[in-house]
Design goal:
Layout (H helix, E strand, L loop, with lengths): L2 H8 L5 H26 L4 H24 L3 H7 L2 E5 L1 H20 L3 H24 L3 E5 L11
Antiparallel strand pairs: 1-2
Length: 153
Amino acid sequence: MRFSDTYRILLFLYPADFRRRFSAEMLLVFEQRVNEHLAIRGSGPFAFLLIEFWGIMKGAYIMWFAKIIGRKRLSQEATTSSIEPLTVAEATKRRDAAIKNMVASIAKHDFSSARQYSYEETRLKNLIWDLANQGRPITSPVNTGPGLGKTAP
């Protein structure tokens, strides 16, 4: 059995919605890291694999804990957001940035931030669809939290 197969099985420790959203990226990052580690260090992957598998266990625990306590982070962010008119081009640029930040967060195993960026990407995707169908800019709440929302003019 390959390391990737074991990692893929361990991904089942995560909640199903999280797994559907992030498992492909997590597996890709893991495979890249294994290849890099083996190319640089040659043999002795035990410590590397132990750290990776500990990370997946810790991440699964955090995601389940967050799901169980019913974290209300998104609703809190919505109350602190500002109203700003957006065009399709601006919303697309912000969506691309959210995707880039989500992938970077996954690569760092910061899955809580990755989830926030994923929610932001979904919100922007829906906004872009609405803008394209209406043909005019509309007003939409924009997160002003760290790393999300407003961009410099």
